[in-house]
């Protein structure tokens, strides 16, 4: 569902951008928008794509809308042959283009960064990437999202962890959901909440595909 939503935002931007230059003789920051268009066309969204990517796509859409409005005003101004007293309009135009270009560079960087992360995960090297830590505090940013039901899930997992029948048994608790809903944040909170109850604990980072034997070896080495 998240991938479909991101695809919708992508398609909407592409359609709007393709129409805009046809309407105006001069469209502001056209080369920069064209570069972002190429980045978007080169990538596909999947369930593994972070939902947080919707924010730069939203902002990209608004930036395009602002440039369209700016181009319309420029066309009206030229049609009315208005004089630019004291270069006020020229200064406003430069300031608008400067701010917008800066924002577009940030959007492009965000989109490219996400592509690079996915490329690493899907590469042969990424398939064997397993890292074992004693604690995630030094390696993972802790972010507590505002999500309804977060505390309820926290309490349920807390209770499940202590339902192991005996010391030799293992409980496996899965945390699933689309990207950006707070799965890692929930795992962080659980880890810190119960760490005093366990003598041995590890925080393990791994890619979507991995070798179980390699994982076991890394854990044993970590102990």
TrEMBL record:
Keywords: Plant defense. InterPro entries: NB-ARC, P-loop_NTPase. GO terms for molecular function: ADP binding. Residues 151-220 form the NB-ARC domain. It holds the Pfam family NB-ARC. The keyword Signal does not apply. Transmembrane segments: none annotated. The keyword Oxidoreductase does not apply. GO terms for biological process: defense response. This is NB-ARC domain-containing protein.
């Amino acid at each position: 569902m998240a991938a479909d939503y991101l695809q919708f935002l992508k398609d909407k931007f592409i359609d709007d951008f393709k129409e805009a230059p046809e309407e105006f003789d001069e469209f502001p920051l056209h080369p920069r928008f064209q570069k972002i268009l190429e980045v978007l066309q080169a990538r596909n969204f999947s369930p593994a794509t972070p939902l947080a990517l919707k924010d730069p796509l939203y902002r990209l859409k608004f930036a395009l809308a602002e440039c369209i409005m700016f181009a319309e005003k420029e066309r009206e101004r030229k049609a009315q042959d208005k004089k630019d007293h004291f270069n006020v309009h020229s200064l406003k135009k430069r300031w608008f283009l400067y701010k917008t270009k800066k924002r577009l560079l940030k959007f492009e960087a965000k989109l490219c960064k996400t592509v690079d992360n996915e490329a690493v995960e899907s590469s042969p090297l990424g398939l064997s990437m397993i890292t074992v830590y004693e604690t995630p505090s030094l390696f993972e940013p802790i972010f507590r999202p505002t999500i309804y039901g977060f505390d309820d899930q926290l309490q349920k997992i807390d209770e499940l962890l202590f339902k192991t029948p005996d010391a030799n048994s293992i409980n496996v608790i899965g945390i699933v959901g689309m990207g950006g809903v707070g799965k890692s944040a929930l795992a962080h909170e659980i880890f810190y909440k119960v760490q005093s109850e366990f003598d041995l604990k590890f925080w393990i980072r791994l890619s979507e595909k991995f070798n179980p034997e390699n994982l076991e070896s890394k854990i044993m080495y970590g102990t």
